[in-house]
UniProtKB/TrEMBL annotation:
The keyword Signal applies. Residues 24-72 are annotated as: Disordered. PROSITE patterns: PROKAR_LIPOPROTEIN, THIOREDOXIN_2. Residues 1-19 form the signal peptide. Residues 81-230 form the Thioredoxin domain. Residues 35-62 have a biased composition (Basic and acidic residues). Coiled coil: none annotated. GO terms for molecular function: antioxidant activity; oxidoreductase activity. This is Peroxiredoxin. Pfam families: AhpC-TSA. Keywords: Signal. Residues 24-34 have a biased composition (Polar residues). InterPro entries: AhpC/TSA, PRX-like1, Thioredoxin-like_sf, Thioredoxin_domain.
Length: 255
């Protein structure tokens, strides 16, 4: 009987460990495709829920599990900038300690203002594409200006973590802190990443996602930001000038 009791205890412990590993995997694993089409309630700002981050010690390779990552509210409902609005300038701290404003960028013909962050899997998926965008278009007068809108209450989104992320990835563009979280509500950024293409007069010409395939850059068919810039270069209006942002909800301070 003693030997049977020990055997039962071992089996129970093994089952417990297996369940624990399975549950952990469910919070950090790559989702199935159908999860991207599920309905998602609510839009931000502000934040009223915690996001699951990527696995400890590494980047998640796919979008998160759960509700749809696509924004659900219209520009009118969000209450930020609309197409044609003139964006207010800002003066935000860069990861190198300097202060960056739109006015401080010389010879700009426009600005690819992008709200992004350290942890969101979608932001991670687009980092290389943002670097490529900046490398291609900054010399033409359209630099990327990345802003982290998330609350620094999560230290993985704080300034030190931003500095490390920028260094590790070799960002070729400014990565700014939205201190006090005052800028992202003005723009109406609700997801990370969320792009606002401005012209030389800071008029908003395009709002939305970078391209039509977050998960696979090789399978992108439409580069929305590139198309919008090329239209401006021709003296035309971007078409489309709005797409729904795809990513994680912006995380506002709980204070």
């Amino acid at each position: 009987m003693k030997r049977i009791s020990v055997l039962i205890a071992i089996i129970g412990l093994s089952a417990s460990v297996l369940v624990s590993c399975k549950n952990e995997g469910n919070t950090t694993g790559e989702p199935s495709a159908e999860n991207q089409h599920k309905d998602h309630k609510g839009e931000h700002p502000p934040h009223n829920g915690d996001r699951k981050g990527p696995p400890h010690g590494g980047d998640r390779k796919g979008p998160p599990k759960g509700g749809s990552p696509e924004q659900t509210k219209t520009l009118e409902e969000i209450g930020g900038y609309k197409i044609g609005d003139v964006a207010t300038d800002f003066n935000l701290k860069n990861v190198d300690g300097s202060m960056i404003s739109l006015a401080s960028i010389e010879n700009a013909k426009g600005y690819i203002v992008t709200f992004t962050c350290n942890e969101c899997p979608f932001s991670v998926l687009y980092e290389d594409r943002l670097i490529a965008l900046n490398n291609e278009y900054a010399p033409k007068g359209y630099p990327v200006i990345a802003i982290n809108p998330n609350s620094p209450e999560n230290e993985k989104e704080g300034y030190a973590a931003m500095q490390k992320r920028s260094e590790d990835k070799g960002f070729t563009f400014p990565y700014l802190v939205d201190e006090g979280q005052k800028i992202y509500p003005q723009y109406g950024a609700v997801r990370t990443p969320h792009v606002f293409l401005l012209d030389a007069e800071r008029k908003v010409q395009y709002i939305g996602t970078i391209d039509d395939n977050a998960k696979s850059p090789e399978d992108v068919k439409v580069n929305f930001v590139k198309g919008a810039i090329e239209a401006l270069e021709k003296g035309e209006k971007p078409s489309p000038n709005f797409t729904k942002a795809i990513g994680c909800p912006v995380k506002a301070s709980k204070a």
